[in-house]
Amino acid sequence: MMDSDTGDSPRNSAFLDALTPEDRSELLALGHTRDYKAGTTIFMRGDPGDTLYVIEEGRVEISLTSLGGRRSVLNHMGPGEILGEIALLDNGTRSADAVAGTKLRMLALSRATIVRFLTSRPDTTMALIAGLCGRVREAVGMFELQTQINARARVARCLTIMASKWGAEDENGDVRMEVTLSQSDIGEISGLARENVNRQIKSMVEDGILRMEGRTMVVTDLEALEELCDE
After folding, report:
1. Position 100 pLDDT exceeds 80
2. How far apart are CA 190 and CA 98, in angstroms?
3. What is the CA radius of gyration of the chain?
4. Do residues 229 and 160 touch, judged by C-beta distance below 8 A?
5. Is the overall model pTM greater than 0.70, yes or no?
6. N or C, which end of the chain is more exposed by having fewer CB within 10 Å?
7. Which strand (E) or helix (H) includes residue 104?
């Protein structure tokens, strides 16, 4: 199991995957390591977007806060993923808030460095665009999740998304979450109170859809979980 604080099972982004090993090493060598404690704000919506980050260890929570103070979690990101590319590419400001969900280590690359690098590598530029499109799709999916009325369906959809992003199939065909997501985390993503999330998870465990192993969640019936998303 991957420890969410150490990130010992990195997941690659479309951007980094598009690089040859030589180009990837060259790019990462241009960055500077930054460490953050859990709960530290990395940037806020509206901040200058002059830096791109590559997550090396830990987890980052991306969110938006409405004028009324309501916070909506858009995404959780982990090792190998890139953060801050939208503002970096259009030279604009940050479009959301980013907070260290766990102890975090990232590689920081300046806009000037990235632009010089991409100018001579059009294939890599297209991969970065593809990655941005994927990020937009994820955000739309999170907003759709919070518009559902049925609490059980909300939690099921949240867990399905998380299983797709953070899950690994074991030898029994079960999907084991490789990060530890608290019920508060799931509540923020699904827009539900922690108590409601707790009830739904207990119900899914009783139905044989989930299994808890300490703080690790295991999806034992992914098909049934997906069916709950449409209730």
Report:
1. yes
2. 18
3. 18
4. yes
5. no
6. C
7. strand 104-110
